[in-house]
Amino acid sequence: MTQISHRHHFVPQFLLRQWHAADNQGFWLYFRDPSGRLRCLRRPAKSVGYVEHLYSLRPDVPSIQTMYKSDAMEVEYFAKIDADADIVHQKLLIDKRPPLLGHERRAWARFINSLLERSPQRIAEIERLSAVDPKIQNLLRHPVATNLRDGPLKADLDAMLRNNLLRALRDFIDRDEDLTYLSSMKWVAFDLTSPDAHFLTSDCPIVLNAGSGPEPIEMLTIAISPKRLLIMHREHEAFDQELLVKAAIVHSWLVTQQAQRHLVSSRRLVDGDSMNYARIAEHLAGKTDGI
């Protein structure tokens, strides 16, 4: 019998593994405990960036045998996105300007778009919007919906709604307009050369527009390793070398500010010549965690 996947990673393990240290103890994970105190533990990639049953489809008509697996979104959809992105990621790590094919740029664009849409915060936002959407609420009060709920099928309308919201999430991620835009952006790899300099990442790994606002997306940065930052920006003369360097400098600070719970580092954070890492960690404003 196939085991059902229940630990659903919204930040894929292949990305976080780049922060593992050579001693096989994982990375340095920073978080705030229930008292608000900043703490640090060594953890592997599998222990971060997931929520139990985040993408699980719920049995919406219990009286009828389920026609789909509860973990179909995770194992048949997101796993495919991450596997395709992992191939591109390896190329981006080896070569600053890899000769990517069209489908490879598209695969990475799809991965980036998925990171923007698949987080627990984004799913919660969609659920909140649906709860106040008059069209959806009218459908739930429709006599057909009442018959589904109270009739012989005993349908779970809440489960049905959430399943449909998750399926709509796929439409957001696969929106052709977004994928074409992200694919057509200019991709620039920025490397750190100073021995004590390293990029941080978190459970919100993408920084949009250098922190100036989420929309429209003119530029995004994502650390693909502790030493390499990928900058994606639209073709425009404003994105000169000076601006890109500034975006790289503020990335670790901003990725810490937007972290929900966890900040990830490839080493223990101490202040160095290039950046005050320990001071950055103190500004981790994520929710407390009971690890």
Characterization of this structure:
- The protein is an alpha+beta fold and 291 residues long.
- The protein folds into 2 domains: 1-51 and 185-291, no CATH class; 53-180, no CATH class.
- Helix content is 41%, strand content 15%.
- It contains 10 helices and 10 strands.
- The protein has a 4-stranded antiparallel sheet with strand order 3-2-10-6, covered by helices on one side. Strands 5-9-8-7 form a 4-stranded antiparallel sheet, with helices on both faces. Strands 1-4 form a two-stranded antiparallel ribbon.
- Helix 2 crosses helix 3 and helix 3 crosses helix 8.
- It is globular and about 70 Å long.
- The model has no long low-confidence stretch (mean pLDDT 87).
Number of strands: 10
Helix segment tally: 10
Net shape: globular
> What kind of sheet is the major sheet?
4 strands, antiparallel
SSE-based structural type: alpha+beta
Residue-averaged pLDDT = 87
**N→C terminal distance:** 32 Å
Helix content range: 40-55%
Describe the SSE topology.
Blueprint: E1 7-9, H1 13-16, E2 27-32, E3 38-43, E4 50-52, H2 72-94, H3 102-117, H4 120-132, H5 134-140, H6 143-150, H7 157-173, H8 176-184, E5 186-191, E6 201-202, E7 206-208, E8 219-223, E9 228-233, H9 241-257, E10 263-265, H10 277-282
Antiparallel strand pairs: 1-4, 2-3, 2-10, 5-9, 6-10, 7-8, 8-9
